[in-house]
Write a structure and sequence with these properties.
Elements lengths: L4 E2 L5 E2 L2 E2 L2 E3 L4 H13 L4 E4 L16 E4 L6 E5 L4 E5 L12 E2 L11 H7 L6 H4 L2 H4 E7 L5 E5 L11 H5 L8 E8 L1 E2 L3 E9 L1 H14 L5 E6 L5 E9 L1 H15 L2 E3 L15 E7 L14 E5 L4 E7 L3 H14 L4 E5 L2 H4 L11 H11 L15
Parallel strand pairs: 4-6, 5-6
Antiparallel strand pairs: 1-4, 2-3, 7-8, 8-12, 9-13, 10-11, 10-12, 14-16, 14-17, 15-16, 15-19, 18-20, 18-21, 19-20
Helix pairs in contact: 6-7
Length: 381
């Protein structure tokens, strides 16, 4: 049986057409595919739900797309240990664990487990539960050439060997093909409430400081800031029914806001469309207000200092540099996640990266032939 088939016109990665497509159904099949790809000197790009294929730079070559659509399902669910092992192609939205949750929000419908890990996308509730890196406790990867590597395990406190899971998280598929992931789970909260307050951008700093001062332990503190106009704060509290009621009442008084049990429609969604550039901006918590009032739509986690910006294509290079400079002054950074091709060709997608030399050495060690997603990552890695 052939290991791959000819690509169609729809099999592209950031506009770069592929020659072949493979869809292995197991780690062993994936190993066989990548062993043959290395023998034929093929470059490889991994595709999950295709929700973030336009993130990063286009690959220099995309000979073979490895599609994870058959790598789906729950391998193991140890409910008593609050652990689940998932195949990489499993859509996050399909996961249903009675009484338990994998506390990863879903900013893009259709996103898969492997793609979420590869791009390190974490949503609003990272404030309470941690990021992808924090929840990932084990990983299985097929490295370039077909070697299967397993790191971590199925227990939360596993200190054997290097924590390679953190290395693969956010690597944009440049170090290998993720086939399975083990995650730490959390119980589903009995109740939740959201406190909403809309105010001018100039008032948001004081409101955020007031939330922090009350120590009500919110699960998330999100904001939605249109390019022009007032900003809406949404504070999520979770827990027991009585505890949620009391904490929500405290927040409503502090913020002079309203309490609801429904998340706002913009919750956890990126603010950009396909015609705009999408940026990830970070800042120290006390400096989050510095990012407001910049004339572009912003949305994200004010409680963790991670915001996302939508930049219109016209004049984007100038706006990107201004936003990045503002983020750096605020103790953070700015990365262009996605952009229309004309904008992508004019901007520095990643910005200055102090660890670039180390990243290059890691790439050389794990993928000596630079066959995996060549050019997709920072510095052309």
């Amino acid at each position: 049986m052939a290991l791959w088939e000819a690509a169609t016109g729809e099999d592209t990665v950031a506009g770069v057409p592929a020659r072949f497509v493979a869809a292995p159904a197991s780690t062993e099949e994936a190993s066989e595919v990548l062993r043959a790809a290395a023998a034929d000197d093929l470059t490889v790009v991994v595709r999950g739900g295709a929700t973030k294929l336009d993130w990063g730079m286009p690959p220099r070559r995309a000979d073979l797309i490895v599609d994870t659509r058959h790598l789906t399902g729950v391998v193991e669910h140890a409910a008593g240990d609050l652990i689940v092992v998932l195949r990489a192609g499993t859509p996050l939205a399909s996961l249903d664990l009675p009484g338990q949750q994998l506390a990863l929000d879903l900013p893009l419908p259709g996103a898969t487990v492997g793609g979420t890990v590869a791009t390190n996308t974490s949503g609003p509730r990272r404030q309470a539960y941690g990021t992808v890196r924090d929840l990932l406790i084990g990983i299985t990867v097929v490295r370039p050439g077909g070697m299967v590597t397993r790191a971590g395990g199925k227990v939360v406190k596993n200190v054997a060997g290097y924590d390679l899971g953190k290395l693969y998280t956010g690597s944009y598929g440049t170090l290998g093909l993720i086939t399975e992931c083990a995650f730490r789970l959390h119980p589903r909260p009995a109740a939740q409430a959201v406190v909403l307050r809309t105010a001018p951008a100039a008032a948001i700093g004081a409101l955020l400081a007031a939330v922090r001062a009350e120590q009500v332990v919110p699960a998330a503190v999100e904001l939605d800031a249109p390019a022009q106009g007032p900003v809406t704060l949404a504070v999520l509290v979770e827990g027991t029914a009585i505890g949620v009621r009391d904490r929500a009442a405290t927040l409503a008084k502090v913020l002079d806001g309203e309490v609801t049990d429904t998340l706002p429609p913009w919750w956890g969604a990126y603010p950009w469309t396909g015609e705009e550039a999408g940026l990830k901006l970070t800042a120290a918590l006390s400096r989050v207000p510095d990012l407001l009032g910049c004339g572009v739509a912003l949305r994200g986690s004010a409680g963790t200092g991670v915001l996302y910006a939508a930049v219109p294509a016209e004049g984007a290079p100038t706006v990107v540099e201004r936003l990045r400079a503002t983020a750096i002054r605020a103790g953070g950074h700015g990365v262009v996640l996605t952009a229309p091709p004309p904008v992508r060709d004019q901007v520095d997608m990643w910005g200055p990266m102090p660890g670039l030399a180390l990243m290059r050495r890691v790439k050389d060690q794990f993928d000596p032939a630079h066959a995996f997603a060549p050019g997709r990552f920072v510095g052309g890695i």
